[in-house]
Amino acid sequence: MATTSAKPELDRRSAARARALDTPAARLILANPLPFAVMRVSRGSSDGRYRIDYISESCKTVWGVSRAEVGDNLRLLWNRVHPDDMPHLSDRLRAAERSNHEWTATFRIRGTDNSREKWAVARGLPRPDLPGDAWNVTVTDITAQIQAYADLQASEARFRALAENIPGAVFRYRLRVDGTHQIFDMTPGSVAIWELPAEEINNDPAPIWQMIHPEDVPPMLESVDESARTLQPWHYIWRLTTPSGQFKWLEGRGLPRREENGDTVWHSVIIDVTAQRKKDEEIRRLAERDELTGLANRTLLRRRLDEALRQRLADGGRGALILLDLDHFKDINDTLGHDAGDIFLRATAERLTESVCHQDIVARIGGDEFVAVLPQITSEDAVLATIGRIAARLSDEVHIEGHALSSSVSMGIVFFPRDGQTPNTLLKHADIALFEAKASGRQTHVFFSPALRETRERRRTLAEALRTAIAADALSIAFQPIVAAGSSNHRGFEALARWTLDGQPISPAEFIPLAEETGLAVPLGKVLLARTLRLAVRLAATGIDPGMISVNVSAAQLREPDFAATVAAMLKEHGFPAERLEIEVTETVVFGRFAERIALTLRELRKLGTRIALDDFGTGYASLAHLKRIQVDRLKIDQSFVRDIESDGDNAVIVRTVIGLAKALGMDVVAEGIETHEQLAFLRRHGCDLAQGYLFGRPTTSETDLVSYLNAAEHE
Predict the structure, then answer these.
(1) Shortest CA distance to 528 belongs to which of 568, 469, 573, 585?
(2) Where are the alpha helices (H) located in 541-648, listed in sequence order?
(3) How far is Cα 14 from Cα 20, in angstroms, rounded to an integer?
(4) Contact, 353 vs 362, CB < 8 A?
C-alpha cells in the first residue's frame, strides 16, 4: 500500500474555502435535502414478474413520471434507466434475489423532453414477512452530489472548501496499475471518523485499515477492485474500532475515473452511520420481537428456524420444535382482566426461557401460544427432559393482585428435518400434534406422526361435510326403547343422532366431539332436537303414547343464554308437551368450567316442565352437593358398570350404590347397556327403575319399526 504526502498551504486554502462557501450553488447543496421515492414491489403468483404494490407521490420528482402513470408497472420505471447502467443494475438485483439480502446500486435516469439526465442511488430491503418475494425500495436523486463532485474536480479550491464542510471525510483514492493503493487530499473530517488528523492519514493510511473489522477487509478490497474494473460507483459499509475503543459503522461512496496512465481514481466520501445503524437495529428488533414479552415473534422465529433446518440438513443432525398452548388461559382474562393476563404471559415467557438451553430459541406467536426450538438434540430423551422442565416450571404459581394463578400446558412436538423441511411444514405438523394433546384432555404432550396428519385431514373433511349436512338437515334420529326394569313395559325412548356420509355410517363418538371442536354443536343440537320432536309427534299421532323422549344436549348448547327459550319455542312449534321431554347431560358438562351458567340454564329448563337426566353417572366427579344444586330428576348408570356386573364385584357395588343413592334422593334410575337376562335380573333384585339396552331393542331410524314396536308393547 503506497502513500503520498503534501504540505497544505493553509492560508491560501482557507481563503478559497470561504469564497466557495459563499456561492449560491454551495449554499443550495448544503441547505437542501435530496429528494427520494419509496416503493414496495413483489412477485406476482401468476406470471412470476415483479409489480409495484405501492409507490410514494414523490415518484414524479425522482423518476419524471407520476404515480398515476406508473400504476403497478415496474417495467415502466426500468425503461427509464440509462441503457449503459442497466447491466450493472440487473446484476445487483439478481445477486440480491439469490441471497435475499439488502442491495444498493447507483445508476442514471434518462431525462424527459424538458429535463436533463439524473443520477440516482437505490437501496432495497427484503420483506420476508410478506408474500411474493416482497422488497422495500428507496430511490434517491443524487444528481446534486454528482454535480458537486464534478465541479470539485474542475476547481481544487472549491472542492476543498465544500468537502471540509460536508459531514464525514472526503478524499481521493487511487488504485495504481501495479495494484498498490494511495489515499490523498483527505479532509479534516477524518478526526471525527478515525480520531486521526488528515495529515497523518495522508502520510500513512495503514492505521485506518488496521481499525477495520477483520471480517470486512477482504470484501471491502473486493468491492474496490470491482468498481475499478467496471468503473461503476463504489459503495461499501463496514465496521471498525477507533483508537479510543469506539465501535462504529462507516459507509463509503466513490465515483471512479480512469486516468491516462491506467490508474483508477475515486472522488470519495465516508460518513459515520453508527447512529443510523442503531436505529435500523431498533426498528428490526421491534419488527422481530413480541412487544409484550420481548421474545422472538413469528417473523424472527421463521428465519431462525429456517437457519436451523439448513444446518441440520447439511450436517445430518436433528432438532426439535415444541409448540405450547396454555390450558384455559382465557379464564384468567375473563375473571381478572387482560392486564392480569398480560402479566401472566410475561411470567410464562420468563419461565419458558429459563427452562431451555441458551442456544435454544423461544418465541411467542400469538395469544397464549409459544414455541421453543431446540436447534440440535442428541436424543429423544433430551427432548423429554426439556418438556418435563417446561411443564414443571410453568405449573408454578404466579401471584397477581392477591391471586395465586397457575396453568398447565399442552405441547405438540416435531423433529426436524424428519417431520418437515420448511418452517411452515414444521409449524403445521406441530399444530396437529398440539391439537391431539388438547383433545386428549390437555396437560400433556404429543409427538407428531404421519398417522396424526391423516387423522387431522379426516377431521377437516368430516367437519366440512358435517357443516353441509347440518345446513341441509341431512342427519337422522334413531330412537332406542327405555323400559320398566321390573315389567319390561315401555316407558319412553332415547333419541340418538345418526349420520351417513357417502353411504358409510359415521359414529356419533366421532362426529359429536368434532361438532363441539369446530363450533357446530349448537346448530347440530338444534337440528337434532327438531327432528326428535317431529318424530315423537308422528309416533303419538298413531294413537300410541311414545312415552318420555330423552334428548342429549351438549355443553355448548347449555352455555347459550337463550337455550331454554329456544327449547320452549320448539316445543310450542311442534305441539309437544314439555313434561314429556327429558334433557340428558353428562357429569363433565354439568360440573365443568361453566358450571354456574349451565346450572342456571337447567333451572330455566325445569321451569318449562322438562325433566333433567344425568347421563354416564359414576364416570365423572359428581358429588351429593352437585346433585342437590342442579335438581336432577333421573340418574343413568353408564353401561361400563353394567357390562361386567355379574363378574366384577366392584361394578356390582357401584351399581347398587347408585340405585340406593337415587332412591334416597327421590330420583329415577336408568341402567344402560343391558344385553343379558342375568344383568336384568341383578338390576331387578336391587330395585332399578328403568332399563335400556339391546335386550329390549336396538336404536332404529325406521319409523315403521318404531310403530310396530309400540303396537307390540301395547298388547303385551
Answers:
(1) 469
(2) 555-559, 563-574, 587-590, 595-608, 624-630, 639-642
(3) 10
(4) yes
pLDDT in tens, 456-505: 888 889 999 999 999 999 999 999 999 999 999 999 999 999 999 998 99
pLDDT for 11 beyond 60? no
User: Which residue, among 162, 160, 168, 198, has the nearest Cα to 3 in the 3D structure?
Assistant: 198
Is the distance from CB of 340 to CB of 400 less than 8 angstroms?
A: yes
Query: Three cell numbers at 143?
Result: 444528481
- In one-letter notation, the amino acid at residue 109 is I
The predicted model scores a pTM of 0.53
d(CA 69, CA 75): 12
Strand 634-637 and strand 668-671: the pairing is parallel
Residue position matching grid coordinates 340454564: 601
Separation between Cα atoms, residue 344 and residue 263, nearest integer Å: 67
Task: Show the cell assigned to 440.
Answer: 386428549
* Separation CA 630–CA 47 (nearest Å): 65
Report the chain's mean pLDDT, rounded to a whole number.
Answer: 86
Triad 560, 563, 568: Cα angle to 5°? 170
Cell numbers at residue 400, please? 397477581
Looking at the chain, how many residues does it have? 716
Asked if 49 and 43 count as a contact pair (C-beta separation under 8 A), the reply is yes
Is 523 in a helix, a strand, or coil?
A: helix
Contacts of 544 (CB under 8 A, 6+ apart): 707, 710, 711, 714
If you search the block for the grid coordinates 427520494, which residue do you land on? 36
Q: Which helix (H) or strand (E) holds 205?
A: none
CB 48 within 8 A of CB 167: no
Q: CA 522, CA 554: separation in Å to the nearest integer?
A: 8
pLDDT band at 32 (very low <50, low <70, confident <90, very high): very low
Please spell the DSSP secondary structure of 495-519, one letter per residue.
EEEEEEETTEEEPHHHHHHHHHHTT
Q: Distance between CA 689 and CA 668 in Å, rounded? A: 6
Q: Give the whole-angstrom CA distance, residue 497 versus residue 61.
A: 70
| Identity of the amino acid at 59 | C
| Chain centroid, CA 264 distance in Å | 53
Report the amino acid identity of residue 625.
A
> What is d(CA 671, CA 691) in angstroms, rounded to the nearest whole number?
5
Q: What does DSSP assign to residue 633?
A: S
Beta bridge partners of 586: 615
> What are the start-end ranges of the E strands in 352-420?
361-366, 369-374, 398-400, 403-405, 409-416
| 471 close to 490: Cβ distance less than 8 angstroms | no
Percent of the chain with pLDDT over 90: 51
